[in-house]
Design goal:
Shape: globular
Structural class: alpha+beta
Distance between the termini: 23 Å
Strand content: over 45%
Largest sheet: 9 strands, antiparallel
Radius of gyration: 15 Å
Mean pLDDT: 88
Length: 147
């Protein structure tokens, strides 16, 4: 379930509630952390990536990014219905289309359009669906305003 009024996402059967108040300790003690595939740290930024999780009927890998134990952003990357070949521009464009359609179904069509993707703005933060042809990579980013 996603509550767009407060920027809250409830994953699975209470695996975790994601919102601007999520901290690293809560993630590490959650059932969702049991599904983590990798974690690493770069220059004080900590990254935790899950296996594929079903969110409202679509499979996503999620990456949680923390700075000083506070959630900075969450990224979602669809896996499951397209051929998975890394570093394939056409494949990533298809993935972005899936991301955009999923977001429009959940958040509606009131978004801003950019060359790189779409952006929804809320009082609590932003949701973007972007494609970067340099990497190439498509992802959904949920970022929260600073507390």
């Amino acid at each position: 379930m996603i509550n767009i009024n407060i920027g809250e996402i409830i994953i699975g059967n209470n695996l975790i509630i994601i919102n601007k108040n999520l901290n690293e300790k809560t993630l590490l003690s959650s059932k969702l952390y049991d599904k983590a595939e990798s974690n690493y740290e770069i220059n004080g930024w900590k990254y935790y990536t899950t296996e594929v999780i079903d969110i409202l009927g679509t499979g996503f890998m999620m990456t949680f990014v923390f700075k000083k134990s506070k959630l900075n952003n969450v990224s979602l990357k669809h896996f499951g219905t397209i051929e998975e070949r890394p570093f394939d521009i056409e494949n990533e464009k298809k993935r972005q289309e899936i991301h955009n359609e999923w977001l429009q179904k959940i958040l509606g069509k009131s978004y801003e359009t950019y060359v790189w993707g779409i952006k929804y703005k809320f009082e609590w933060g932003e949701v973007t669906s972007s494609f970067d042809p340099r990497t190439p990579q498509s992802e959904i980013y949920i970022s929260y305003k600073k507390r």
